[in-house]
Write a structure and sequence with these properties.
The chain is built from five helices and nine strands. The protein is an alpha+beta fold and 150 residues long. The protein has one domain (2-144). It has a five-stranded antiparallel sheet. Strand 5 (79-81) and strand 6 (84-88) form a beta hairpin. The longest helix has 10 residues, at 51-60. The two termini are 31 Å apart.
Length: 150
């Protein structure tokens, strides 16, 4: 079984080019939200009603064109197209890290798939084991599940 992990200190993160590829593949590991929902404009507090629009306009002014009608957040948090913000879901969940589309994009793009402070790698683990992502300061490994008490 193949799994994507981060092999440097800093943390798991995808580049905007990897995010764009995953959106084009309609990958399950990508979430979709309108800017209104992303910035909290759906919260039913009268004093917050207009805040999301101000925040969105301020940030969107810094988004950069990355081709195919996509623009990207300057720090790579998400990509935007057609009124929708797309971002990566599940940085540590097993299903997400073993997602076939995520694996394909990381293998295809290589180092270009790395987000800020990331060095993503596709590793092979044995099929049929129960496993989890172990992380320390962003550096990750895969560990087989076991029992422990304290």
């Amino acid at each position: 079984m193949k799994v994507v992990i981060n092999k440097c200190y800093g943390g798991f993160g995808l580049s905007v080019f990897a995010l764009k590829e995953l959106v084009l593949l309609n990958a399950a590991c990508i979430s979709q939200r309108t800017p209104k929902v992303y910035y909290g404009g759906n919260i039913e507090k009268p004093e917050r009603r207009g805040e999301w629009e101000v925040e969105w306009k301020k940030e969107f002014a810094e988004y950069k064109d990355i081709g195919d009608g996509f623009t990207a957040h300057p720090f790579g948090y998400n990509v935007f197209k057609g009124g929708i913000l797309f971002d990566f879901t599940g940085r540590g969940e097993n299903e997400t890290r073993a997602d076939k589309d995520l694996i394909a994009v990381v293998e295809k793009l290589g180092k270009e798939a790395n987000g800020m402070c990331a060095d993503l790698r596709v590793i092979e683990i044995p099929d049929g084991i129960e496993w989890h992502v172990h992380e320390y300061d962003g550096m990750e490994s895969i560990e087989e599940n076991h029992r422990s008490w304290s």
